Amino acid sequence: MGSLRGAGGGSGGDYSEAERVRSVDAEEACALLSSGRHKYLDVRMWEDFEKGHVAGARNVPYYLSVTPSGNEKNPQFVDQVAALYATHDPIIVGCRSGVRSKLATANLAAAGFKNVRNLEGGYLSLLRAAKQQPHEN
């Protein structure tokens, strides 16, 4: 899976468009990322990404701001992802806890990305999975 760095924050969104998203759990995501065939797209805001992320992850924020009064979606999200990945590339989409990445995965699938999967539980689930892995000496 690569190494994990630190921790991050933020979540929110509307589930209506994300009901049929393909998802993977942390264990499966680790295996897919370790294979080298899947890429990791982190959809948290930049400041959260900088606090910690999967090694090799690319960051395209799904939201530009998250406030108590509402979330401002990144209007260029799909275009920015399309500049980094082809629609057939295998991509695992993650955020902090899996809420925002589920919405982002649904948006990407609706835009024609054919091999995107949401990381259930987000980056936090990867951190928990990494702590449960036996360390090699």
From TrEMBL:
Residues 34-131 form the Rhodanese domain. Pfam families: Rhodanese. InterPro entries: Rhodanese-like_dom, Rhodanese-like_dom_sf, STR17/STR18/HARC1-like. It comes from the Eukaryota. GO terms for molecular function: catalytic activity. SMART domains: RHOD. This is Rhodanese domain-containing protein. The lineage of its organism: Eukaryota, Viridiplantae, Streptophyta, Embryophyta, Tracheophyta.
